[in-house]
Specification:
2 domains; OB fold (Dihydrolipoamide Acetyltransferase, E2P); 28% strand; single chain; 13 helices; elongated; alpha+beta; BirA Bifunctional Protein, domain 2; 434 residues
C-alpha cells in the first residue's frame, strides 16, 4: 500500500531521483565545510550529506540542529563510495526542534531509572531494545487471532461496564454510572458463556480488563490484556486444553520464524515447546513434596510452587510450559464443572510458562439446576445473576474455555523480569499517569 513517507529501508529504489525524506536527526559529524547527518525512522538509518557550498549562509544554522529533532531533507539519492546510499541534501527544514533530552536513550553505559523511562516512554520507545518488545507483542496478538480465525472462531466484543464481577474472590473497580454504581469488567466470563447458548460455538475476544488487587509484584497489573475463548460441544476440559496447546505452539513457532530480526536485536532465542506436559494437581503435590514444598490437600499453588514446577519440567523434560489439571472446588469459581467421581475437584486447568501462570480455563457447568446449586454453595446471591442463568434454561450445550494473559505471555516468552516492561504505560495501585 503506497504511503506518504519514503522509509530508510526503501531508499535504494530511488537512486538517481530527488526525494523528500522525513525522520529524526540521529547523529551528526561536522567536518568543516561538509557535514554528515544520520537520519532515523522506524525502518533504519540513512545518511544525508550537507555541503556549505549548497547552503551558503544557512550552513552554520543547519549544523547546529539538535540531535533527535524532526527534520525534512530534500535531495538526490546516490550511492556512497564505500557502499550503501545517501541523500545529497539541497533543502533541510526543521519540523520540530528537540530540546535537550530529559533521559539518556542511546548510551548503554548510562542507566535511567525505570520510572523515569516510563515518564518519557515516547523517548524510551525510540531505543531498538524497547520498541522491538512491542513489535513482538503486536505479532503475538496477530498470531493468536490468525490461529483462531483459521479454526473458525468468531471475534466478538462483550460489555466492559457491568453490574457485578464475574470472578469470585477478585476485587473490582467501582465506578459511578449515571445514577447507580457499576464496575469495570474483570473478564468476559458470564457473557462468553451466554454466547454458547446462541449457536455461536467458537468465540474469542482480545481486550483489556481490570482488577483492583493491591499487588506489587513483577507479574501483576491493575489493567491487563487478555485473550479469551469459549467453545461449545466439548466432551471434557481436555478438548479445551488441546486448543490452548495448539494455539500456544502455533504462536511461539510463528514468532521464532517471522520475528527473527526483532529477536536478534533483543538477543533472545525462544524455545518452541514440543509436547507440553500435563499433570493433575495431585501429581503436582507429589513433585513439590520431593522438593521439600508440602501443600495442604485442596490448596492452590502459590508463587513458589509454580516456580518449582517450572524449573522441574524444564530440567527433567526440557519443556517450558506445563498444564496443571483438576484444581480444588474450594479454590475455583462457581461456574467450573466438578469431577463426577469426586466433587472436591474441578475440570479446570492452568498453564505455567517458565514457572508463572499465564492461562486459566475449565469445562463450565452447563446444567441449570447444578449451576444454581453451586452458586448458592459459594454463598453468592442468585438475584444479580438471573440474566446469566436465563441462558441455561433454554438449551445450553456443554462448553468450556480459557483466559490467557497477553502481558504475562509476552513477558515469559521474552524472558523479561518485570511485566511493566511489556505494556506501554502500566497501571498499578500507585500509577494512573502518564
Amino acid at each position: 500500500m503506497p504511503g506518504l513517507k519514503i522509509y530508510a529501508k526503501d531508499i535504494e529504489k530511488f537512486e538517481g531521483n530527488k526525494i523528500e525524506f522525513f525522520g529524526w536527526l540521529h547523529t551528526k559529524r561536522i567536518l568543516g565545510n561538509i557535514s554528515f547527518f544520520v537520519l532515523r525512522d522506524k525502518t533504519g538509518y540513512i545518511q544525508a550529506t550537507i555541503k556549505k557550498e549548497i547552503f551558503g549562509d544557512n550552513y552554520e544554522k543547519i549544523i547546529n540542529i539538535r540531535e533527535e529533532s524532526v527534520i525534512r531533507v530534500y535531495g538526490k539519492v546516490q550511492k556512497k563510495p564505500k557502499g550503501g546510499y545517501e541523500i545529497l541534501a539541497e533543502e533541510i527544514e526543521v519540523l520540530n526542534q528537540a530540546e535537550p533530552l530529559p533521559i539518556e536513550i542511546w548510551n548503554p553505559e548510562i542507566k535511567t531509572k525505570f520510572i523515569n523511562r516510563i515518564q518519557y516512554r515516547f523517548l524510551d520507545l525510540r531505543r531498538p531494545e524497547i520498541i522491538n518488545i512491542f513489535k513482538i507483542r503486536s505479532s503475538v496478538v496477530n498470531y493468536f487471532r490468525e490461529f483462531l480465525i483459521n479454526n473458525d472462531f468468531i471475534e466478538l466484543h462483550t460489555p466492559k461496564i457491568v453490574e457485578m464481577g464475574a470472578e469470585s474472590g477478585a476485587d473490582v473497580f467501582e465506578i459511578k454510572y449515571y445514577n447507580k454504581i457499576a464496575y469495570l469488567a474483570q473478564s468476559p466470563q458470564l457473557y462468553k458463556q451466554m454466547l454458547m447458548a446462541s449457536g455461536i460455538d467458537k468465540y474469542f475476544e482480545i481486550s483489556p480488563y481490570w482488577r483492583a488487587e493491591k499487588s506489587h509484584t513483577t507479574r501483576h497489573l491493575s489493567e491487563f490484556w487478555s485473550l479469551d475463548i469459549e467453545v461449545a460441544w466439548i466432551k471434557d476440559h481436555y478438548d479445551i486444553i488441546n486448543i490452548a496447546e495448539e494455539l500456544i505452539k502455533y504462536t511461539i513457532k510463528k514468532v521464532k520464524k517471522e520475528n527473527k530480526e526483532e529477536l536478534e536485536i533483543l538477543n533472545i532465542d525462544i524455545k518452541v515447546p514440543k509436547d507440553m506436559p500435563k499433570i493433575t494437581l495431585l501429581e503436582a503435590y507429589k513433585i513439590l513434596e520431593s522438593y521439600g514444598k508440602k501443600l495442604d490437600m485442596y490448596s492452590d499453588l502459590d508463587t513458589e510452587a509454580e516456580k518449582i514446577l517450572g524449573e522441574y519440567f524444564l530440567k527433567e523434560y526440557d519443556e517450558p510450559i506445563v498444564f496443571v489439571i483438576n484444581y480444588p472446588w474450594k479454590e475455583r469459581p462457581f461456574y467450573h464443572m466438578r469431577l463426577e467421581e469426586d466433587l472436591n475437584w474441578t475440570k479446570s486447568f492452568d498453564a505455567l510458562y517458565n514457572g508463572i501462570e499465564i492461562l486459566t480455563g475449565a469445562q463450565r457447568e452447563h446444567r441449570y439446576e447444578i449451576l444454581v446449586k453451586q452458586i448458592k454453595e459459594k454463598g453468592i446471591s442468585i438475584e444479580p445473576l438471573k440474566y446469566y442463568l436465563e441462558a441455561f434454561r433454554y438449551g445450553m450445550p456443554p462448553h468450556g474455555g480459557f483466559g490467557l494473559g497477553i502481558d504475562r505471555f509476552v513477558k515469559q516468552l521474552l524472558n523479561i523480569k518485570d511485566i511493566r516492561e511489556v505494556v506501554l504505560w502500566f497501571r498499578d495501585p500507585e500509577h494512573t499517569t502518564p
